[in-house]
Here is the input.
Amino acid sequence: MPMTIWQSGYRLAGGKYTIERLLGEGGFCVTYQARDTADCPVAIQTLMPC
Here is the structure.
């Protein structure tokens, strides 16, 4: 079962990035599909919480 930290629509870095969906998770990281303010797709990877 995925450990979703950020839900779709969550904004990061003062609104520069908006989370769209969870892409996957591994042993140490969670990866999300997001969009920046120029509407370009980006991937955001963060460490899993302890």
In short: The chain has a mean pLDDT of 89. The CA atoms of residues 17 and 39 lie 9 Å apart. The chain has no helices and four strands. Residues 1-41 form one domain.
